[in-house]
Specification:
Layout (H helix, E strand, L loop, with lengths): L2 H31 L12 H6 L10 H29 L19 H9 L7 H16 L2 H21 L2 H29 L8 H57 L9
Helix pairs in contact: 1-3, 3-7, 3-8, 4-5, 5-6, 5-8, 6-8, 7-8
Length: 269
């Protein structure tokens, strides 16, 4: 692992810790600002949907665990969005001039290559990496066709690299609904276990409390799935926005190299 890869991993770790801390703070605030309601109460409250506040096991609930994974996933999406913004910003650095009359011979590419090589970020961003590969290929072969083929192959590999970076995000987006379904199964199981403790049918008050208890537990069971689906929908939307921005950045890099480098190469010395 290179120093730049270590730096990016360190940044991801910091964002993850901040995201988890934010989730913990949210759960703490829910504990301080809200209160549990009796098991026999049938009143619907938003805190029971979001945190299962009335659970006897609170704060160790499925909803709170889902919130932690939600913020962890949101943090990873932020990392990808930030990286895409950095990639787009490289296009404004003026690495190559936008001059339609400018042509590059082999010797003209040496200063550009040296500039990228001396830049500590030169091997980190797609633009610098792609320009270096094209220049090296052209210096060796003196062929614009091979330089263009190398650019196309590199863009395909970089596209695959972008896709791989979303593996963890896709896993977390899948995990949250799965936890919601698990919470539903657990809730239904608890409700059915309570159904076996049916009181005397002649005791109307006890029957009313028994039915209220079962319906409350069933409500909690389905709340986990509802919250999970809402979370997942929001995360998928943000993930697609971030991935689209990162793919757009790579597309702009390809156009930049094609317009300002590959199409201006001449084999003559």
């Amino acid at each position: 692992m290179t120093s730049l890869e270590k730096e990016e991993s360190y940044y991801r770790l910091i964002v993850l810790l901040v995201s988890l801390f934010t989730g913990i703070i949210l759960v703490i605030l829910a504990s301080v600002l809200t209160s549990a309601q009796p098991d026999t109460s049938t009143e619907w409250r938003i805190t029971d949907l979001l945190f299962d506040r009335s659970s006897t096991s609170y704060p160790l609930t499925i909803q709170n665990l889902m919130w932690l994974f939600f913020f962890a996933c949101a943090g990873e999406i932020w990392v990808r969005w930030h990286r895409a913004s950095q990639e787009i910003a490289q296009l404004e650095r003026g690495l190559m001039l936008d001059d339609d009359t400018l042509l590059y011979r082999s010797k003209d590419l040496v200063p550009i290559y040296q500039t990228i090589k001396s830049d500590p970020l030169g091997s980190r961003f797609y633009l610098q990496r792609l320009v270096k590969r094209i220049i090296m290929q052209f210096q060796i072969t003196r062929s614009t066709e091979q330089a263009n083929n190398l650019m196309n192959s590199s863009l395909e590999l970089m596209q695959h690299e972008v896709d791989l970076k979303y593996n963890m995000v896709r896993y977390l987006v899948w995990l949250i609904p799965t936890l919601g379904f698990i919470g539903t199964v657990v809730g239904i199981t608890l409700a059915l276990s309570s159904a076996g403790d049916m009181p005397d049918i002649t005791d109307s008050a006890a029957i009313k409390a028994w039915v209220a208890l079962i319906t409350t537990k069933l409500g909690v069971a389905f709340n986990t799935t509802l919250l999970a689906l809402i979370m997942s929908a929001g995360l998928v939307f943000c993930m697609n926005i971030a991935q689209g921005r990162e793919e757009k950045a790579l597309n702009l890099v390809g156009q930049y190299c094609l317009d300002r480098l590959v199409n201006r190469l001449i084999a003559a010395d």
